[in-house]
Amino acid sequence: MIEILDPTVEIAARSIAFVPRPASLAGKRVGLIENTKFNSDRLLQKIGDILQAEYGAAGTRMWRKRNASVPAHEEIVRELRESCDVMVAGIGD
Amino acid sequence: MPAGSTAVSSVALSSPRHVARDEGDAIELCFARGWTDGLPVIPPTPARVEAMLAAAGLDPQQQVAYIAHRAVPVTAEKVAINAVMAGCRPEYMPVVVAAVEGIGDPRWSYHGPGTSTAGAGVLIIVNGPIARDLDVNSGDNLFGPGWRANATIGRAVRLIMRNVCGSRPGTLDRATLGHPGRLSYVIAENEAESPWPPLHVERGFSPEQSAVTVMAAEGPRQFYNQLSSTAEGVLATLADDMRISGTGAGQPQYAVVLAGEHMRTIAADGWTKRDVRAFLFERTQNSVAHLRRTHRMAGPVQPGDAALRRPLVESPDDILVVAAGGRAGAFSCYIPGWGGKRSTEAVTKEVKR
Lengths: 93, 353
What we know:
The structure holds 2 protein chains of 2 kinds. By secondary structure, chain A is of the alpha/beta class. Chain A has helices spanning 40-55, 74-83; strands at residues 2-5, 29-34, 59-64, 86-88. In chain A, strands 3-2-4 form a 3-stranded parallel β-sheet, sandwiched between helices. In chain A, 16% of the residues are buried. In chain B, 32% of the residues lie in helices and 16% in strands.
């Protein structure tokens, strides 16, 4: 019999506190996180426009990440927290 | 601690243990658990892992890197386990550690090259005395098989990416095509025959130091020039090949690997690595009109686009020049870096031993 060591890591479980989803988007301020990929700004703005026209959102504001491969930087997160109620982000090619 | 020392660390190994009937069963267990790159691995027994750690003078729990984007600490123990599995000799461990420090560096920015559909490999360039001590190939069949250090050091890094950092094909590794360099992509610079300062010296280290440079990279692309006996002639061919490569509109960096014949031709004309970089930077620019016509840039061709030049990289210094490859043959290669500007950059780390 031989023993071998596990080469993987157990990911330590961390709970993330999600803000409760609002029952309605009426009057909510919407943040849009643009990831710099081509056309992502147009797609997000389209989504934002629909949220305003069809769901009564109060308005939208867009932020642009430094590049697609990194998390949103601290200023975005801080400003978003101060000025928005909900946000839309995504990634795609 | 000298390489090859068998001193056993006083700190115990903490990874979960699995039992197999014999070595053959242990190899199959590693396959069954999804721990391999598709080739058989050396079973990582505690004795082998301890020898690996001892060769680098590391305690098991010492943190080699922290992958912020994954919130994953990479401990020396996990590096050693995967290095054993890859087939590394214990004395390779300091090189593997330096490479892992490199991909954990915020400038390398793990998430992009570790995940992207563009399928980067980790090009690992070894410089300094350790390359000769470990027989890291810098000559014939440079990117091909045949050298244990070249084949196993890069394999260890990829296994760590898979098993520790979560870069598994189809989940957090989204490579569309990938390339063979993702098995192992390790070269040394031919410092003994090169007429130029080695890469690590250009990047701030002394010739007596050993260092590892990691670069997120596409596969190597060979070019051929057997006709010219001048630096300008050889590099004109290279520039013409390079100009339309990668995305054509903004790789962060390129590596250019000049093999024996071309290296001697270019040096005989008195050209330095800086001259090579300056020439290539100038001669690899595309017109915006061409990039639009070929749908590498968005939108219709605008008046003035024909005269607008777009460089392949931001600066000549973004072209890393390395002297390596066989003595015979009028071939060299260039390697496009992965990704876009500001999303990653090559990082050089000292090998501590």
